[in-house]
Specification:
Layout lengths: L14 H4 L2 H24 L14 H15 L2 H54 L2 H4 L7 H4 L10 H20 L15 H21 L15 H17 L1 H4 L2 H23 L10 H6 L5 H28 L5 H27 L7 H23 L10
Helix pairs in contact: 2-3, 2-4, 2-13, 2-14, 2-15, 4-7, 4-9, 4-14, 8-9, 8-13, 11-13, 14-15
């Protein structure tokens, strides 16, 4: 019997994993955080986005929303890859190579193509809806203006990268003739020493990666390639976690320690790295040199977000396992529709923000109001879309 999750890290899975209701709820939390992250991009304008209403005279709003986005970026997409890696071995074993590959191409490839060729150009209309003095665009909105320049990955870069990781997993299984995940060693949970070594290794590799690709630099449609070491290692860690049943067996105390570690670096290191930014309406030099270029500040930033990502992942897995491990109709609804929300939320945000442009509110208040509107609209739209025949088999 299929459950509400799958190896995409976004929806559906095996009957074995369907009992992990807390992962359903954790995934919903992450999806909602992604939506809020992109609403923040509209009203904080700390990064390039399809449609923005920047706080021209409110550095507090600019910096609070920028900090919110940077803190999210430190861990939440890595958490998605961790969950995706966890569900990959069981799906491969259950379906076999041919069916698994077909399923990945269908459930990852089709939404990716939809966004690449249709939803990204549609969302890019937001550039033409902003004032010309803000964008420098003076040509009218037209089909010719959107194609082919506006085709692209958008937030579906995650799906594209995950598809590559899935191909890598297939290759690894074929080359090693690895035993099935069902027969894997169910060893004890990871120790603090091993986690500490992982933090140091991830910090060092991330630091080196950011010499080539600083945080915030887009590479061929991938906006956060600076985090590739985290994404890949978390996916691999998720595969190992499935084999060793870590999501069920990690001690609650380890999750508490993870939260404490994340809180310490979040309270001590992040504000230090962010210093000099609070009264600016653009990214300051202090913050800029911490995002890469091989500086000692960049090394400190890599240490901060490595500890933060691992601590938050450990903490949230155990927290949701303790307190959010009961199925409900509402929770099941949210879980079943989360992948569709992920695929469609960008154009919904763009056009709702444009429709609400006449509301005169301070940026932080407008962020809150629009968020409260966008999230239910996304889920209602996802519900309607999934009623289309065969769509629910993909989304």
């Amino acid at each position: 019997m299929e459950g509400p999750l799958d190896e995409s890290g976004l929806q559906g899975t095996t009957s074995k994993i369907s009992r992990l209701v807390f992962i359903d709820h954790l995934r919903v939390f992450l999806i909602i955080l992604v939506v809020l992250h992109h609403v923040a991009a509209v009203y904080g304008a700390g990064t390039e986005f399809y449609y923005v209403e920047p706080p021209f005279t409110d550095p507090t709003a600019f910096n609070l929303l920028l900090a919110f986005m940077l803190i999210n970026q430190a861990w939440f997409m890595g958490a998605f890859f961790l969950l995706a890696g966890y569900f990959t071995p069981g799906s491969f074993d259950r379906k076999g190579l041919g069916s698994y590959l077909k399923d990945r191409l269908l459930r990852l490839g089709l939404p990716l193509a939809l966004f690449f060729f249709i939803l990204n150009p549609l969302s890019s209309a937001g550039f033409y809806l902003m004032p010309a003095e803000l964008t420098g665009i003076t040509t009218p909105l037209s089909l010719e203006a959107l194609y082919p320049e506006s085709i692209g990955l958008g937030p579906l870069w995650f799906v594209a990268m995950l598809l590559v990781f899935c191909f890598g997993y297939i290759l690894w299984r074929r080359l090693t003739r690895s035993r099935s995940a069902s027969s894997a060693d169910r060893s004890t949970s990871p120790g603090y020493f091993g986690i500490g070594l992982f933090v140091l290794a991830l910090t060092g590799i991330s630091y080196l990666m950011r010499m080539l690709v600083p945080i915030g630099e887009e590479v061929r449609g991938f906006p956060t390639l600076a985090y590739l070491p985290q994404y890949l290692s978390f996916f691999v860690l998720g595969v190992a976690a499935y084999r060793r049943d870590w999501f069920r067996t990690i001690p609650n105390k380890m999750g508490e320690v993870g939260f404490i570690a994340a809180a310490i670096v979040g309270i001590v290191l992040f504000p230090y790295l962010y210093s000099g930014q609070w009264f600016s309406l653009e990214v300051s030099e202090t913050l800029y040199i911490a995002l890469g270029q091989g500086t000692w500040q960049s090394a400190l930033y890599a240490l901060y977000d490595s500890i933060f990502a691992i601590g938050m992942s450990l903490g949230l897995i155990t927290f949701f396992r303790q307190f959010q491990n009961k199925q409900s109709r509402f929770g099941r609804f949210l879980s079943q529709h989360s992948y569709a929300v992920y695929v469609f939320h960008i154009p919904i945000i763009v056009f709702l923000a444009y429709a609400l442009r006449g509301i005169e509110l301070a940026s932080l208040r407008k962020f809150a109001v629009v968020s409260l509107i966008v999230i239910p609209v996304c889920y209602v739209f996802a519900f309607i879309v999934r009623k289309i025949p065969a769509v629910s088999n993909i989304l």
